[in-house]
Amino acid sequence: MNFLLLLAQAQTSVPTDKADTAAELSRIGIIVMVVYMIILLILGIVGWMRSSNTEEDFYLAGRGQGFLVTVMTIMATFFSSAAILGIPGNVYKEGVAFVLFTMNLPCAGACIYLLGSKIRRIGQKRKYVTQGDMISDYYGDVPAVRLVVALIGFCYVLPYIIMQIKAGGYLAQGMFPDAADLNIFGHQMPIFQVGATALSLVTMFYVLIGGMRSVAWTDVLQGVLLLGGMVLAAIATIVALGGFGGYFEKVADLPPEALSLPGATGAYPAWKLMTVAIFASIGSLVQPAQWIRMYAASSDAILKKSSLVFAVVLPSCFIFGIMLVALAGRAIYPPEMVDGELVANSFVGAFDQIVIVMIKEQLPAMMGGIGLVLVAVILVAVLAASMSTADSNLHALSAVFTRDVYDRLLRPSATQNERAWVSRAVIVIATLLALWLVNAGHENEAFKPLNMIASLMFAAIGFSCQLLPATVDMLFIRKGTRAGVVSGMLAGVATIFLFKLFPPFSDSDIAQTFTRNLDLGLIGCTVNVIVFVVISKFTPALDREHIAKLGKDMDGK
Amino acid sequence: MFVLALVMGPGPGIYLVNPDPGDPEARRFIFGMPIIYVWASFWFIVQASAVALSYFLLWKTSPDTPATTDA
Hints:
Chain A is an all-alpha fold. Chain A has helices at 7-10, 19-50, 55-60, 67-78, 86-94, 104-114, 116-126, 131-139, 143-175, 191-240, 243-251, 270-285, 288-296, 300-332, 354-410, 416-443, 448-458, 460-464, 468-477, 482-501, 503-506, 509-517, 520-538, 544-555, and strands at 182-184, 187-189, 336-338, 341-343.
């Protein structure tokens, strides 16, 4: 994401007359960050002490999650650091048009109940752990079904893990720009590597020892920081501008192109925004980590309550919180046209930096020492957002690989103890591999594997959307066939590749016209549904008795 | 109600109030804020109300059933 290139520039742009403030911020930042990391480790250890040594506990916290943990872990997993950097960065770039993106959140909230309650009921009754368990039980437990579902899961979780670790490196670089390299056993570690390593190892530690319980408990803290940071940044901005009167005066300076659709660069026509609102939200809810959270909730009532709170609280924090910061930022530091291209104001450095620049400029000047503490807390909230996404996806990756690939395809005779070791080994290997990729990519910007993964991240939600037709069929329609679902998902995944990751086609006029006006997930889903329906029409139907039994379990009858 | 909010908020309904950037007379602000922002806030409140109404009036929960072993 662009913001990864920005945090690095943020603190280096601090004027020299503010050097003392920057140094003070670094000192306070270290204290706040260390306290935060220690609390995470304590939560991880407490999670481990409260857990039992079973697969169900490691992956689903014993299927006993209460309301607060369920709603906070769903929210914290839903948003990565994009919540405070990327999304406000888009408002800063495009203007008020992108505020409408927020309307995907009530859709996602409603789906927590509409999809989640049925998924939870059958998951509880039939002891599912991954989405592959449910989809393959429904359509027939053949390798093709599990493999395609696992492939889609990997396409979603892997880029997220890697990019969040990278964000940790840039955040450390942004918070401590003048920090000297650390000498660890004779190896010089620049601050970027220190940040990425600290984020990875702390996250790996608590996922490894406490599984879902530790992940969910730390998500509560991270979710509170994320939501608090979004609201705090808005309050601080309005106060710093002299109250609502001063805020309205600043916003009145916005140019006409920032006050209407399709946005300053023309990127967001209404159809695009509406389809993104629908498909980005549902796609993000049927990804592996969220699916696992549905199984982990202890009752329908908890998912129902989580649905309401998610649909009301999270969008409120956006619309009446962080979006206000980005709008004011656009008025105070207007983007510039360079060679016919809209770029961020030179003081801001890059679009995704706007919230960081706003709070760093406004809070310390207005509130002195307390302002510095607040800036540090908001910066740690960005870190929390990264870690809460990295931990959930790391945990989901371990579940998908162990349950859907190792246990079913590689070693069907594996004992529970063996599977427990494999799942932990996956967490360690995935973390270290991701860290190596991030560090290699930082040392060499042309490092191809990391660049490919970065591209994959832009298509991640599109991939995840390809589980949607199968999900809707299982939960509501119940007419698809095994060949239909596998062909549909493969066709959908291939379409996403073609439209986003295969330049000979994705750069063509026809592909550009589609992706400019419609959400990528919708494009993939359309092809997926057509193939699914046609193939299902001409292939043998599933055993009706089996489907009826599963249907009763989903419907809670 | 929810679908209406989607069509009117981020969907084509926005063109009812979307100011033309080239028209200097177009109304761009209401209550001190950009009109698109106020429009988005209004339809978000409609969406949130629809979810709240569903929560209280439509959505049912079912009691848990014991696990089976045939999965």
